[in-house]
Amino acid sequence: MPKWKWFTDYGSSGNRVWIAWDDNFVDVDVVECGTQFIHCHVTIRAPHALIAVTVVYGANEVADRRALWGTLETKATQCVDIPWLVGGDFNAVRDLSEVCGTSGDIQIAMDDFNACIENAGLLPLPMQGEWFTWHNHSATPRNLWKRLDRMMINDRWMARFPSASYSTLTPRTSDHSPMVLNGDRQQRFGGMFRFDNYLAHSPKFIASVQTIWQHNIIGTPMYSVTWKLKALKSVFREQRRNKGGPISQCATG
User: Fold this and answer.
1) How confident is the model at residue 20 (pLDDT cuts 50, 70, 90)?
2) pTM across the whole model
3) What is the number of structural domains in the chain?
4) Is the pLDDT of residue 176 over 70?
5) Which ranges carry the Endonuclease/exonuclease/phosphatase domain (predicted)?
6) Pair 126, 51 in one domain
7) Hey, what's the torsion of the CAs at 195, 201, 202, 206, to 10 degrees?
8) For residues 40 and 28, is the Cβ–Cβ distance under 8 A?
């Protein structure tokens, strides 16, 4: 049975962010709570892994959100050695493709948000599902859709959980889409890529790599490389079966 624990930010911001977790599987240590975020360390017991998670709820006004952007840039310097996930309602979009409808002049807000993402070294976590995550539900012709909700990661997260992604679901009672983090199957079942050096001498080697590498994979560059390495495993496995001889291995994880 789930053993739920809760943390809410009543003291600092009037109950904008709630965090709930199953105490049977994870330990959560709230490190800092601000008016637009909760930052915590999460220990996943099996497999044992420590990660940092920042849950955000951006303010409505451009000027007020700048405090959040500054916080994320500071947190980035504190999370250089730990996988870090940042997610929630940022109340900002990155470009006009994330807006459908009349929204006024949002260029300054977009510039601020993109500068924060660049300065913090954040990467977009691969996403599937609803593109626009918020709708104003207007009864007038002024319908407005925006992509206000997302998950982002640092490079340590990408290295530790290279196949992780998230889904944006269809909203129900809320005007926002729920987001679900999808676990990393490669990490759970062992994701080391092994390569036998002697295979490079096979006349089929270059052709095999070129065939896999020409695929256009949607996602971050690191995600694309990881997908292609996984696809090459079965190719090299077949070539091993068809060729004997001494083996010299190198491995990357």
Assistant:
1) very high
2) 0.72
3) 2
4) yes
5) 10-176
6) yes
7) 80
8) yes
